[in-house]
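Need a sequence for this fold. Nothing fancy.
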C-alpha cells in the first residue's frame, strides 16, 4: 500500500513539475534541476497543489514562489511553507534562475472573475 501511495505522489509531482516547466527529477539527468524538483516535491508533500480548488494552497503562488524568492506567503495562504534547506534553494536558483518567479509558467492563470490575489 505504501508503494502505491508513493507512486501516486511521484506521478502527481512529475505532472506538476512539467506544468512548471521543469523536467521531473528521475528523467532529467541534471543534478541541479533535481534541486528544483525537490523544492516542488516538498511543497506537494506539504499539501500544496495546482489547478482549480487550490485557493490558498497553490503550488506556485503559495509555496514555490515564496520559497524561491525568500519572501512571505500571500495572506490568502492556508498551509505553512515547508522547511526547505537553503542550500537546496541556492542549487535550484543556480540551475534555473527564473524558477519560482512566475515567468514562463505553464500553469493557467486565474480568470479575471476570481480576483483573489487583489484582496
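Here you go.
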Amino acid at each position: 500500500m505504501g508503494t502505491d501511495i508513493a507512486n501516486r505522489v511521484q506521478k502527481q509531482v512529475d505532472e506538476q513539475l512539467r506544468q512548471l516547466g521543469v523536467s521531473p527529477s528521475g528523467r532529467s539527468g541534471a543534478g541541479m534541476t533535481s534541486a528544483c524538483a525537490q523544492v516542488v516535491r516538498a511543497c506537494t508533500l506539504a499539501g500544496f497543489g495546482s489547478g482549480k480548488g487550490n485557493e490558498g494552497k497553490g503550488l506556485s503562488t503559495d509555496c514555490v514562489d515564496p520559497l524561491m524568492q525568500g519572501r512571505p506567503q500571500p495572506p490568502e495562504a492556508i498551509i505553512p511553507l515547508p522547511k526547505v534547506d537553503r542550500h537546496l534553494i541556492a542549487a535550484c536558483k543556480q540551475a534555473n534562475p527564473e524558477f519560482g518567479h512566475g515567468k514562463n509558467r505553464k500553469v493557467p492563470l486565474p480568470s479575471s472573475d476570481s480576483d483573489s490575489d487583489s484582496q
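For context: The mean pLDDT is 77.
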